[in-house]
Amino acid sequence: MIHAPGRAAGGVRFFKEKEMKKTAILLMGHGSRVAAANEALHAIAAMVEETSGIPIVEVAFREQHAPNIQKGIDACVARGAERVLLYPYFLYAGAHVLEDLPAEMTEAAKRYPGLEMALGEPLGVHPKLGEIVCERIGEAMARSGWDQKVA
């Protein structure tokens, strides 16, 4: 079963313990030839696992780095997942999010007909992201020796 993207009220902490053991999060990034870029997604995955309490958190990449999306889904299933939330760690809903990732889910559904899958929404526009951008701008200005304050 595949669910379309949508916003859920509340958060992942509302899962019951027995449900969490069957649930996996697959964080999907674009992938890069630059190792540090790929390692960043692994760091985010560790944060998600610690914060959410969901015991199965895996990482996969759309291009240029392993594991690919299908291997990521395989890893979730191998760890006992009965449902997988595929979360696109992308800023915007471009072609990968709107076309490629749903196609990956359709392919996986053929291999795992009993696996429930849902696709989360990309990061998008969020007040916390605005705060992070302002923080990073302030850091860059400080490194440049500029005295401009950023709220």
Automatic annotation (TrEMBL):
Pfam families: CbiX. InterPro entries: CbiX-like (IPR002762), Sirohydro_Cobaltochel/CbiX (IPR050963). One of its GO terms (molecular function) is metal ion binding. CDD domains: CbiX_SirB_N (cd03416). It comes from the Bacteria. Keywords: Lyase, Metal-binding. Gene3D superfamilies: 3.40.50.1400. PANTHER family: SIROHYDROCHLORIN FERROCHELATASE, CHLOROPLASTIC. This is Sirohydrochlorin cobaltochelatase. It comes from Desulfuromonas soudanensis.
